[in-house]
Design brief:
- There is one protein chain.
- The chain is of the alpha+beta class.
- The chain has one domain.
- The chain contains 6 helices and 5 strands.
- The protein has a 5-stranded antiparallel β-sheet with strand order 1-3-4-2-5.
- The longest helix is centred in the first third of the chain and has 19 residues.
- The protein is globular, with a radius of gyration of 16 Å.
- The termini are close together.
- The relative contact order is 0.20.
Length: 208
């Protein structure tokens, strides 16, 4: 069926170029702060976006949360004088992860095997968030997968193997490497040249 792709930051004139900037900033920040042994805290340096006292209840929408992190990260990179380098999609040092918050069952498995890199809701650390997207397929409106909302996260090189373990114990498939997903974003970035250097030939069962 024909697919429609919606990018959360609709105000931008060039969504792919905008995403490249966001991923570049996420990569710079996360690679600079990744520290095995401090899994729970090292990539939660930015202010927790789920802060009702700071922002109020009505601002706590998923797309707004991701935008807030992006804004914080841009300012923090300047403050800490961390350089942001241009990159090619097939030469990222880390790996891109997709997280479907609507499919999360809060089982805590990924948190357990990654020493709290993921939280109990299988959410990757907020410093890693690079974008929020909605895939919509023209299909039966009663089909529960007609709308798919997901967060794109950048996983720094130091945590790729550990995150792989977290994915392996996630029965609801709410976390998955981008290239293993069947999202519209995975197709668009594959066409743009994104490919994980250690990509496998097989694709696991999961989201359509």
């Amino acid at each position: 069926m024909k697919e429609r792709f919606l990018y959360a930051d609709l105000w931008t004139s060039s969504p792919l170029a905008h995403l490249r900037e966001r991923v570049a900033e996420a990569a710079a920040w996360c690679e600079a702060h990744a520290a095995r042994g401090d899994n729970e805290r090292c990539l939660r340096k930015l202010n927790n976006p789920l802060d009702v006292e700071r922002f109020g209840i009505l601002n706590q929408t998923p797309d707004w949360l991701v935008r807030d992190i992006s804004s914080q990260r841009t300012k923090a990179l300047l403050t800490h004088r961390i350089p942001v380098s241009p990159f090619e999609w097939d030469k990222l040092p880390g790996r891109l992860l997709v997280y479907w918050p609507d499919d999360n069952t809060s089982d805590g498995g990924a948190a357990s095997v990654t020493a709290e890199f993921f939280d109990i809701h299988n959410t990757p650390p907020w410093d890693t968030w690079a974008g929020y997207f909605v895939d919509s397929k023209y299909c039966d409106p009663l089909e529960p997968e007609a709308m798919r909302r997901y967060v794109l996260a950048y996983i720094p090189a130091a945590f790729v193997d550990l995150v792989e373990e977290g994915i392996g114990v996630n029965p609801e498939y709410c976390i998955m490497w981008l290239e293993d997903s069947k999202t519209t974003l995975s197709r668009i970035l594959a066409e743009a040249g994104y490919r994980w250097r250690g990509a496998r030939d097989s694709t696991p069962t999961g989201h359509q």
